[in-house]
């Protein structure tokens, strides 16, 4: 696993950056684990641990991405389309 620090609402948003952020939940409750960002070809790009409240954030380029949640006992993917300078919110249910 990587040495990244947990993301979440305490991480400062960067104005003008293309941001993908959200949370990982199971039965409506936050789940801790890791979230990976895969490019449009499925190649690994980045990984962050979730915060205690299941939240994560990536700064990425414009385009189509797969966001993969890796939590104890489950894995789930969501495809998102990020717009240049925009904020893309995603909830991943596992």
Automatic annotation (TrEMBL):
<dbReference type="InterPro" id="IPR010814">
    <property type="entry name" value="DUF1416"/>
</dbReference>
<feature type="compositionally biased region" description="Low complexity">
    <location>
        <begin position="1"/>
        <end position="17"/>
    </location>
</feature>
<dbReference type="Pfam" id="PF07210">
    <property type="entry name" value="DUF1416"/>
</dbReference>
<dbReference type="InterPro" id="IPR013783">
    <property type="entry name" value="Ig-like_fold"/>
</dbReference>
<dbReference type="InterPro" id="IPR013784">
    <property type="entry name" value="Carb-bd-like_fold"/>
</dbReference>
<protein>
    <recommendedName>
        <fullName>alpha-amylase</fullName>
        <ecNumber>3.2.1.1</ecNumber>
    </recommendedName>
</protein>
<feature type="region of interest" description="Disordered">
    <location>
        <begin position="1"/>
        <end position="25"/>
    </location>
</feature>
């Amino acid at each position: 696993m990587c040495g990244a620090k947990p993301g979440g609402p305490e991480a400062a948003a960067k104005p003008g950056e293309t941001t993908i952020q959200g949370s990982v939940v199971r039965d409506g409750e936050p789940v801790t684990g890791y979230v990976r960002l895969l490019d449009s070809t499925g190649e690994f790009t980045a990984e962050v641990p979730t915060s205690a409240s299941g939240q994560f954030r990536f700064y990425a380029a414009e385009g189509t991405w797969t966001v993969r949640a890796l939590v104890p006992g489950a894995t789930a993917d969501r495809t998102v389309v990020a717009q240049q300078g925009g904020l893309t919110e995603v909830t991943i249910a596992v």
